[in-house]
Amino acid sequence: MHKIHRSFCGLCLTLCFVCYVLHRNISDPELSDYLNGKDKNSIIEHENEINLLRNKLSHVTNQEQSSFPNSYQNNITNQLSRCRKWKPSDWLLKNAKHLAPHFKTSPTRFLLPWLYNGPNNQLLGLRQAIFVALHLNRTLVMPTFQKHFNDGSTDGELSYIDANHRLDVPTLQRLISVITVEEYRKRCGPKVDIVFFGTTTHNMQWTVDSLKNAEKLYNLDFIAEKYKPPNTMVGGDSIVKTSFLPAKGSSFVFEASHDMVLSQFESSLSCALYAFPFRELRFVKSEIENTQINAKKFLENGKVESVPGSLLYDIITEHTQCPHYIQEIADAYIEKRFKNKEYIALHWRYDKDDFYKFMCTEGGNKQKANGKVSRFFKTFCREIFNMTSSTLPRGIRGFLTKVVKKSKHLDLPVYVAAPSSLTEWISTGFKQHAVEFGLLYYDAQDLRDFFREEDFMNRCSFVKRNANDVISLVETEISIESSIFFGSRLSSWTDNVKASKKFKRRPSSQLNQIGCNVDVLVTKYAAVVIGSLRFYL
Q1: C or N terminus of the chain, fewer CB within 10 Å?
Q2: Full set of structural domains in the chain with CATH
Q3: Residue 65: how many other CB atoms lie within 10 Å
């Protein structure tokens, strides 16, 4: 959904990003120490011409400029320092009220998101909730994130993780007014005036079960009594006892524009819960053509309705990037393993325990909605799950040979992010062809070895407690900073990387691009010509 824009559009986007970020002095010494340390890497370096824009716009912003760190020892030292200074989101929100957001939303109208599914689904859901909150002029209530249901540390139980482990909270505070759940309860009590739904609840028992968890976690009361114990009714159309939107019969998908957000969720009621936001926004590609004009309007009046939907979503994405201690771990890994040179990242999403089960079988979630596996999924699943472990390295070599034609880029390290159940299978193919194809293979196992080498687990207790989360976030950052990225179709993890790559901090090069999706590597580039040899699937 979010693809890299042309360089002209990227130039215009950056014009906006540089101009609207504002800084305020913080009186609390501990908070100032936290924020001053964090801001050293807060501006994203783009192509060389962006620096000229920054010089011309220096009168508009006083935010400190920085580039991708180039000292391994500094990265390790910074990471240790950041680890010790890390604070939970509630502490930051209570102690950083001097941070003035660019969009100061209503102090009497609130939006509390309830996020669901995997970590990246939750992050994209939060971005959508921020988009909606801005257009509805509602103050955002910082939600609690959930660990992945496959996270080994949860023992199969629903487990939560602080928002400041998933994104940098002070950066978000510079965009929109944000309060804690505790503050919401002071203003609203246990009540929810209205629920905004991002998906249907009809015959969806999981929606009832999930909202029961929301009631318990946030100590709220909004589910209809007929769905509470000892009652066992299956989810219907009205599972809450409050008002709800969108109206019955309306679509859950809507255009990402001011008027459409209002038509979907406009309400004068103060205390709103946004249940299950995820991929309901639809963007109009043609609107980006007038980015420069809209950027000027945005700088002049700061009104959210003047900003094109796709541009506003990019701004939100820029303000919801990885925490800085995650970026510094990734920086240190990139420098030590890749010497800060060009490298490839690849995300392989397709495991049989999760993706195949839910997307490729008659009993999968998608099929339960329409009753059958679509023709597209039959073809897609057949191609993906019938390949051999040698197909990926062959596909990458084919891409490098046909697309990246300069020989100096034909030997690159490859970092592969994949479910742990597939690590051994994928690594077998790369190691088998390491000499033949000249590809150096890295994965989460090597990243864990790096963590042990630097003793990251013991430096910060929360890293050890949230090891799987931290590893996944560092892999995300490694992928964002890569020279070429190959992603997985139908993956929110890949979607997040693609949307974030325009904000990468490493100096750009001619290889700074998003490669094809991995299914294209399998079907198009795995048959390649190298010298006089030809390789096939």
Answers
A1: N
A2: 85-319 (3.40.50), 324-526 (3.40.50)
A3: 13
